[in-house]
Amino acid sequence: MSSLRHHRVIIASLFLPNTAVLGDSAPPSPDERPGIQTPGFVSPTPGGRPNMLHRSTGPLKSIVEDLKDKTRNPTPSMTPRVESANPFSSFPGLTLPSGSSVTGAAAAAAESLIDALANKLTGGGAKTPGASGVSTPAPNGARQYQTTHHGSNAGQMRVQRRQSRSSGGRPSRPSRSLSSSRHDPGSHSQKFYFESNPHCNGGLKNAVESVGDRLKRKLWVGTLGTNTDGLRESLRRSIEWRMREERDSLPVWIADSDFAGCYDEYCHQVLWPALHYAVPDAPKTKSFYESAAFKQYVAVNQRFADAIVSAYQEGDIIWVNDYHLMLLPQMLRERLPSAPIGFFMHVAFPSSEIFRCLSVREDLLKGVLGADLIGFQTANYARHFRQTVSRILAAEALPKGIQLDSRFIDVGVFPMGIDVGSITQKKREPEVTEWVKSLRQRYAGMKLIVGRDKLDVIQGVRQKIQAFEAFLDKYPEYQGKVVLIQVALQTTEENEAQGGVADVVSHLNSRFSTLTYQPVVFLHTQDLTFNQYLALLTVADAFMVTSLREGMALRAHEFVECQEKRHRPLILSEFTGSYSFSGFRSCIPVNPWDKRGTAKAIHQALTMSDDEATSRWEDLHNHVVTQTAQAFVTSFLVRCLRSNLEHTESDAVSVNALDVTRILPKYRHSQKRLILVDFEGTLWQRDIKTIARNAGVVSSPAFDPPQDALDVLSKLSEDPRNEVWLLSGLPIKGSLEIVAEKAPHVGIVAENGCFIKPPAGREGKADWINMVANFNLTWKAPCLEILQYFTERTPGSFIEEREASVVWRFWTEKNVDDHAADWQWARRQAAEAQNHIFDSLGERYGLRIIPGTTSFLVLPNNISRSTAVGAILHPGGPARSAAAHTAWLAPEATEETDTDFDFVFAVGKDEKLMRRLNELDNAETCSTGAKGTDAKWKLEPDGVLPALQRLTETK
Questions:
Q1: What are phi and psi of 386, to 5 degrees?
Q2: What is the DSSP string of 787-802?
C-alpha cells in the first residue's frame, strides 16, 4: 500500500458519496448521535426545508410493526397512537389492487418503534414527529458507514430528476474549470450544505474510507444525484469549489434529460437485466433491442471523460466503477494514453450467449478494454468476460487477461468485502443494545427471519415469499411462531411492478394472519436507521438471500459479523457471488426457483443445533474477516498500477533493435554460455502443407528443415563453452527427429516443453526425455471429440494430435482477403471451440489453451517452454540428469532460476520465457514478435541468422 502514497486516486462512480442540499444545515436529531446515522438509511426530511433531493415525506415507519392488538407479550413497549387501514400504503408497488382487501392482522396499522421507545432512549424527553428523520452531517474526523449496496446503484432509492423549466432537452452549460477561478462566497445568495448521498455506491464508499490515511489523496468524480438544470452558474461554481475543498469530490454536470435517458432507461431497462441473465422477450420491451437511450449513455460517459481529463495530473490512478460507465475507459485512453486506468464491475457479468444479445455489444466491450486492469467479483464473471471478448471481438483471451494487437489488458478477481472494524465498533454502541432488547421483548418466543433486498425481479423477493408460504404449509406447527421481516430497497416503478411482490405478500398475510400474528412484515430502507438495522441482524434467527443473480451479497457478510454471539445460520442463494467462494460454502445453499427446497432450508436453519450452527458460522466468519473492504481496495489499486507499469515498459516501440556489438563483450568473456533459439517463426516459417502431413494428409510434402539454420546452430555448438538449444512446438515424429539427426549436438525442446533431448555427448547419442510421463492425458480423447465436431463444420481445418498436446488448425489459406467470409466463420468457430474445451475440460484436467493466428494449442497447465528452460538452466535439472525429471515438475521447482551459466542469450516470441530470463543478471533476451514485449531487444526474423553468424565468428 505504500506504493499508493505517492499517487492520487481518481474514483469515477455515477453518484458522488455526498450531495448538496439547498438551505441551512439541519440540526442534529434529539435521538440520533452525530455521525451514527448512515446515508443508506436517510429518513425523510422535515417539511419546509428547501431541498435539491426529491425524497418521500411522512412519519417514520416501524421496523417491527408494533401493533396494538398483535403482540404476544401482555405488556407491550407502548400502546400505538395511530392505526392505518393498510400497512403497505406507504410502500410503492406494495399497495393492494383496487377493490381487494386483507383480513385480520394484515389490515392492522404500523407504529413507529422509534416513537414506542422514544422515552426510553431520550430519557423521557418529548419527541417532535419526524425529527428523527433529519440526516445529520458527520463531524470532522467522524466517518459514517454507508449501507452496503447490492452491487448496483439501482439498489438504492430511485433518483428523481424532474424536468426543470430551463432544460427542455437542451444540454446543460459547461462549468468553468476550478483552476481558472476561485470561489467567491458572495457570488450567490442561495445557501446549501452537504449530506451523504443516498444513491451512491455504499459498498465502494465504505471500502475507500476503510483504508483511511493510507489513501489520503483521492478525488471522487460523479453526479449529485439530483436535478441540476435549474442551478445558476454561480451556484454550480460554488458547489464545485466547496465539493473539491471539503469533500474531495468533483461534480459532473449532466443535463437532466440526458441523465434520465442514460440511468432510468438504458442502465435500468437494458444493461441491468442483461447483466443479470434477465433478457426480456420481444416485443415486451422494444427498448432492449432498439434503445435510443444509448446516445444519452454515450453522452454521460463523455461528460465524465471531460471532467476527469480536466482534473488529471501526472501520476494519478483512475478507477472507473460499474456498468454505468463502461465506455469511459476507452474514452480516457484515447486522451490519456499512458494513464493507469482500472475498471471494476460491481455486478454480475453474464455468459457470452446473454451478452451477445445486446445491439451495442462491441462498443461496450471495446470501451471496457481501454483499461489496464478489469476487475470482477468472482472467477466465473471474469471467465465469462474473457470468453465474451474472445467470441465477439475474436481477441486472444488468456487466463490472465486479453491480448490485443497493441497491448495486453489484465483481467482479475477482486472480491469485495465489508469494513469489519467499523461494523464491530458500531454494533457495540449502547443504542444498538437498546434496540436489541426492544426487539427481543416484542418478539419473545418468536423466530425471526430477516432479509434485505430490492423489489425487482432479480433479487428474488417474490420467490422468497413463496418459499416462506411453502414452509408454513409444510410445517404448520410454525404458523404463528415465525415472522419474516423484509427490508425493501426501492427500485424503478417498472422494475418494482415486474417484481410482483405485492400480490404474494397480500396472499400470504391473508392466509396466515391473526389478531396477534402477521407472518410478513415489510419495511423500507428509509424506515429504519443503521443502528436499528444492526439490531435486527443481531436478533435474527436466520438471514435469507434468494437472489436470482447477484454480484456480491455484502448484506450477508454484515449478518455474519453481527452474529458474533448467537452464531445463527445464513440461507444463501447459489446464484450470488458470495457463494462462489469456499468460505461461504458453510451457509445453507438454496436454489431460489425451488420453493420446496428453500422451505426445507428454512426449517433446517430454525432447527439447527447450536454446535452445527457455531461450526458453520466460524467458517463464514473466517472468510468475512479475510475478504475485507481494505483488502479489496489495496489489491485492486496496486494491481492496476503494476499492470500499467508492465504495459508501459513492454511497449514494442520503446525496445531497441538488437545491437550485436553490445553483447559481444559479454559473450567473448563468458566461460559457460546458453543459447536458446525458437524454431517456428524465427528460424523456420511454418508451411501449413508440411504440417498437414503430420495430421495424416498423405499428399502433403515431407518436413524439410532449413539447412542453413541448422548449420549455424551446429557451428555454435562446436564451441565447448556453448550449449545450444532449439525450442519448438512441433512433434518429435516426422519433424524434430529429423532435426535431431542433422544436428545431434543441439539440444531440442519438443511440443512446447513436453519432451526434451539434451545435446549429444561424447558417445554421440542422447535420448528423448518425457516430461509428462506422470501426467493424466485422458483429456485428449474428449478434446479430440470436441475438435472433430468443429472440424466437420469448418472447411479446410484439421486436427494435429501430438503425444501430449493437441493442435487445431482452423485456417489453411494464405490469402484472407479472397476468403473474408470463410475467415470470419473460421475465427468464430475457433473461439467457440476454445470456450467449449476450457469449460468442459480445462479446470477438470488442468489444461491451458494457447491461441495463434490460424490455430490454437491445448496442453497441460504446468508445461511450457519456460518450464523446459528451467530444466535446462538448473545444474540438477533433467537436462543434466534424466532421473531428476519427476521431481522437477513440482511447481516450486519450475520457477527456479538459479544456474551456473554465466551468459544466456534467448531469441524467440515466448513472452513468458523472456520475463523469466530477465530475472537473470547475465541474460540477453531478444523478441522476434510483432506485439509488445518484455524482452531487452527486438529483432526481425530475417535478422536472426546473421546475428547468430556473428557469434560464430567471435573468437
A1: -60, -45
A2: HHHHHTTSTT-EEEE-
Name residue 490's amino acid: Q
> Which residue, 412, 416, 381, is CA-closest to 623?
416
Q: What gap in Å lies between CA 309 and CA 312, rounded to an integer? A: 5
DSSP symbol at 680: B
Any idea which residue has 499517487 for its cell? 7
Output the CA–CA distances (angstroms, integers) from residue 473 to 102, 266, 466, 503, 599, in the order listed. 19, 41, 11, 18, 9
DSSP letter, residue 107:
G
Instruction: Tell me the three state secondary structure of residue 923.
Output: strand
- Count CB atoms within 10 A of the CB of residue 191: 12
Coil, strand or helix: which one is 375? strand
Amino acid making up residue 395: A
* Residue given cell 418521500 in the structure block: 56
Edge-to-edge order in the sheet of strand 847-851: 798-801, 806-809, 855-860, 847-851
How many other C-beta atoms lie within 10 A of the C-beta of residue 278?
A: 18
Mean pLDDT lowest among 50-59, 268-277, 375-384, 889-898? 50-59
Beta carbons of 885 and 772 less than 8 angstroms apart: no
pLDDT digits (tens, 9 = 90+) for 812-867: 877 777 777 888 888 878 877 887 887 788 878 888 888 787 888 998 888 888 88
* 192: helix, strand or coil: strand
State the pLDDT confidence band at 284, using cuts at 50, 70 and 90.
low
What percentage of the chain reaches a pLDDT higher than 90? 45
Give the CA distances from residue 187 to residues 191, 232, 233, 758, 789, in Å, rounded to whole numbers and listed in that order.
11, 11, 10, 82, 73
Query: Is this structure's pTM higher than 0.70?
Result: no
Residue 531 cell numbers, joined: 443502528
| DSSP-derived 3-state class of residue 733 | helix
Count the alpha carbons within 13 Å of 713 in the hemisphere toward its beta carbon. 29
pLDDT, tens digit, 9 for 90 and up, residues 392-406? 887 877 777 888 877
List all residues 6 or more positions away from 463 whose beta carbon is below 8 Å from its beta carbon: 546, 548, 592, 593, 595, 598
List strands edge to edge, sheet with 903-908. 769-770, 755-757, 747-750, 722-727, 673-678, 903-908, 923-927, 937-938
**Can you tell me the distance from the alpha carbon of 402 to that of 393, in angstroms, rounded to the nearest whole number?**
11
